[in-house]
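Page 37, continued from 36.
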């Protein structure tokens, strides 16, 4: 791959994985996106980066991702998730790069499930609203918006514990894990994001795509599968309702994806296969 790629948000969960893998692949993925160096809410900061960089592709993995934090500070969420997307879209036009922007299943209200790219978003919390505003700022003629959900995979940045690491830590120490039976998604495996992006660059694809594993599962089933693959006690996984978890922002329930569109260009992993790959590629607690 001979691309000059900038990964923005490369200190985060998705960005750190993509940056490492793209660099290993020979693409020069140099993501200086510690937010003190590159601030996506500040167009001057972006101009300084793009005037020097000569990038063909910019992958935006940056944003304010704490759903409850967004609810507490909507203005900060708007700046990080929406205003920033407008800045990047303008820069994409001015500096002629392909923008790949990561978005979320939380643009949907979760009443219907099996959402395709043609379904109308209707977010139920500030995080989802600001991500949707961000999407609307992007010109899809020269960009990709990739909606992902409950991303899982190797924790390259190691800055925060991932959902799977949390589950493993609990189960390995014999403690129960409460997992919502009514929160249903197609969790997105990090290597699928990477491979989709490589295909999209090679084939010069643009547009809106949903990406996750092939099955729609509840958080409860997800945890049960993790317990099974790692040989841990499934009885410690307790089914609860998302409404009982006491979170600040409202969560949509069934944001599962219809994957027809993405399957036309890339075949994502199945859930068990993905968890098995993760198990053999990572040292866990
Ligand atoms: N995690 C999920 O459950 C989930 C689900 C669906 C979609 N997504 C989407 O996937 C993308 C990546 O999520 P993630 O979980 O990898 O995020 P993350 O781990 O929270 O990382 C966020 C990244 O954004 C950077 N950032 C924040 N504000 C910035 C600013 N003003 N300028 C430049 N960089 C800034 C952070 O840098 P600093 O550390 O320097 O602040 C960090 O590198 C986001 O668009 C998110 O909405 C995530």
């Amino acid at each position: 791959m001979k691309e000059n790629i900038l990964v923005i948000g490369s200190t985060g969960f998705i960005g750190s994985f993509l940056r490492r893998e793209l660099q290993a692949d020979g693409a020069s993925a140099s993501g200086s996106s510690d937010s003190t160096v590159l601030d996506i809410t500040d167009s001057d900061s972006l101009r300084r980066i793009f005037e020097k960089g000569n990038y063909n592709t910019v992958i935006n993995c940056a944003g304010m991702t704490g759903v409850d934090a967004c609810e507490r500070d909507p203005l900060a969420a708007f700046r990080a998730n929406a205003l920033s997307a407008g800045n990047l879209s303008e820069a994409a036009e001015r500096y002629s790069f392909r923008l790949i922007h990561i978005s979320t299943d939380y643009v949907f209200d979760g009443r219907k499930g099996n959402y395709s790219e043609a379904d109308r978003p209707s977010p139920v919390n500030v995080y989802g609203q600001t991500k949707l505003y961000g999407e609307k700022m992007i010109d899809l003629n020269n960009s990709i918006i990739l909606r992902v959900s409950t991303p899982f995979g190797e924790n390259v940045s190691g800055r925060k514990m991932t959902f799977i690491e949390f589950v493993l830590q609990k189960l390995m120490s014999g403690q129960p894990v409460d997992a919502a039976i009514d929160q249903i998604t197609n969790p997105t495996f990090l290597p699928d994001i990477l491979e989709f992006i490589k295909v999209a660059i090679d084939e010069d694809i643009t547009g809106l795509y949903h990406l996750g594993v092939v099955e729609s599962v509840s958080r409860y089933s997800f945890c049960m599968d993790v317990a099974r693959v790692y040989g841990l006690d499934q009885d410690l996984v307790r089914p609860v309702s998302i409404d009982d978890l006491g979170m600040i922002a409202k969560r949509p329930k069934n944001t599962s994806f219809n994957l027809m569109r993405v399957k036309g260009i890339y075949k994502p992993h199945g859930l068990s296969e993905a968890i098995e790959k993760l198990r053999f590629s990572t040292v866990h607690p």
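The CA atoms of residues 84 and 227 lie 39 Å apart. Flag for discussion at group meeting. The pocket of NAP is lined by residues 9, 11-15, 33-35, 38-41, 61-63, 65, 80, 102, 104, 131, 148-151 (CB under 6 Å).
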